Amino acid sequence: MNEQEASVFEVQRLLEVEELDTDFYRGAARPEEGGRIYGGQVIAQALASAVASVEPGRAAHSLHAYFLRAGDITRPVIYRVIRDFDGGTFANRRVVALQDGRPILNLAASFQRPEKGLAYRGPMPQPPGPEAAKPLADFLTAAMGTLPWPFRDLALALDMRVGQIDAKGADPSVGMPGLPSQCAWFRLPAGLDEIQARTALALVSDYGLINTALLPHEKGWSSPDIQSASLDHAIWFHETPPLGEWLLYTMDSPWSGHGRGLARGTIFTQDGGMIASMTQEGLIRHRP
């Protein structure tokens, strides 16, 4: 097993949850690491727990999550699912993520049976393609010296590449004019199933959003004078993402203030199909 295959295996492991009892699940941990749990991991495992309680034939179309406390990456997280609603078309679940008996995240997810309806999608920005983008692993190694979880396995398993970064919103090929923007390319491993494809999007969706809100301040999440953390996160799934094909993740930030920053993201296929949209508000404040 080469390094990329090992990273794919690790990402797939983190997308799965173990059923402990009716509506109680446990997510995998990383005892060899240290520090806080990556927020995308908790969102993905909470979504996987909700999916496990929904009858087949309904797919997640949206989720909303609030981060309450930092989680310990070395210890597993317990997920409690509350079955709020099962209708003819839609189902709704709440999930509480717990460590030491205390909530670290609250999530609500909605599921829908497939149906046809009015359709429209906005245009996709046109940044340079993935072949012109730098591998995220190389970019972060140059910036940080080491590549901690989750960036090591995400970067390798998803072949993530850093696209254009436009702190001033001057390049319309990256995002909306006037807004700080950046983009990244990635592709989901071919071995995922349809459910894992959506939970993998939840995993990767937490990447880059806080950093986008910090762009106009010429800071990053790893800046030693900045304290940053995800506060809340929302995802709308428009389509099931294709596997093994390049996906474009565009991000912009319309506002920051009062110690918080707002960022938005959209994931497209290379031919312009809109796969998912997300919004996140994060804590961004100077350390005392």
TrEMBL record:
GO MF terms, alphabetically ordered: fatty acyl-CoA hydrolase activity
Top-rank EC class of the record's enzyme: hydrolase
The entry's keywords: Hydrolase
Domain Acyl-CoA thioesterase-like C-terminal: 161-284
GO biological process: acyl-CoA metabolic process; fatty acid catabolic process
Domain of life: Bacteria
Membrane-spanning residues: none
One Pfam family recorded for the sequence: 4HBT_3
Cell membrane recorded as keyword: no
Domain Acyl-CoA thioesterase-like N-terminal HotDog: 34-112
CDD domains: Thioesterase_II_repeat1, Thioesterase_II_repeat2
EC number of the protein: 3.1.2.-
InterPro entries on file: ACOT8-like_C (IPR049450), Acyl-CoA_hotdog (IPR042171), Acyl_CoA_thio (IPR003703), HotDog_dom_sf (IPR029069), TesB_ACOT8-like_N (IPR049449)
Family, similarity comment: Belongs to the C/M/P thioester hydrolase family.
Full protein name: Acyl-CoA thioesterase-2
Originating species: Novosphingobium fluoreni
